[in-house]
UniProtKB/TrEMBL annotation:
Organism per entry: Brevibacillus borstelensis AK1
Domain of life (superkingdom): Bacteria
InterPro entries named among the record's database cross-references: PspA_VIPP1
The protein, known as: Phage shock protein A
Keyword Coiled coil included in the entry's annotation: yes
Pfam families: PspA_IM30
Record-stated family: Belongs to the PspA/Vipp/IM30 family.
């Protein structure tokens, strides 16, 4: 028995946990409010019917009292006119109306008390509804804040192990490689430019030396020409 009871308790607990996880507070709060609105509507219909019944019994009571008073006047009038038989019949009717008036009065008082109790119940329901409606907005706002905060926390926690975080790390490594390659390329260009400048400098020196030799040769020839003229 103990094992079966524990299995049953575990099953019930699992079902309750599943139901609890499926319950969206916003959806459930709206549903509760709709349920209360339906209940209030039903009570309002019942109160309206009870009030109508109360008015009906009150009207019948007043009519019976009025007829009893009318028959009382007729009894006195008949006796005054010497119509004893007619007075007797009017008196019998008067008593019937008086009994009927008592019955309607009792029914009216009972219906009136029931209607008053139902009015009070309706007022309590409406007051509770307004309180719950005000509380609903607060709870919905708190639920939304909690939901948003949970999403943010999941996003922060997931940055380290999600594809977006890994992708950023991979792109950072790629940028570092590109920067290193660019630096190496710049260094090669600087080395190549230095070599070119050195070669150009050497070529310039060779030209200057060759020009100097040509000029010296021309000058030597020029110096030798006057000597030939004098001979």
């Amino acid at each position: 028995m103990g094992i079966f009871k524990r299995l049953r308790d575990l099953t019930v607990a699992s079902v309750n946990d599943a139901l609890d996880s499926m319950e969206d507070p916003v959806v459930m709060l709206n549903q509760y409010m709709r349920d209360m609105e339906v209940e209030i509507g039903q009570v309002e219909v019942a109160v309206a019917k009870q009030v109508a019944l109360e008015k009906k019994f009150h009207q019948q009571w007043e009519e019976a009292v009025a007829l009893a008073e009318k028959r009382d006047r007729q009894v006195k009038l008949a006796l005054t006119e010497g119509e004893d038989l007619l007075a007797r019949r009017a008196l019998a009717d008067k008593k019937q109306y008086e009994l009927r008036a008592q019955e309607y009065e009792a029914l009216y008082l009972t219906a009136s008390e029931a209607a008053q109790q139902m009015r009070e119940k309706l007022a309590e329901l409406k007051e509770e509804f307004y309180k719950m409606r005000a509380k609903k907005f607060t709870l919905m706002a708190r639920a939304q804040v909690a939901k948003t905060q949970k999403q943010v926390n999941h996003a922060i926690v997931g940055m380290g192990n999600q594809s977006a975080g890994k992708g950023f790390s991979r792109m950072e490594e790629k940028v570092l490689r590109m920067e290193a390659e660019a630096n190496l390329s710049g260094q090669w260009r600087q080395t190549s430019a230095g070599l070119e400048q050195s070669l150009e400098s050497l070529e310039k020196n060779d030209l200057d030396e060759e020009l100097a030799q040509i000029k010296a040769s021309l000058q030597s020839k020029k110096d030798a020409e006057p000597a030939k003229v004098q001979e």
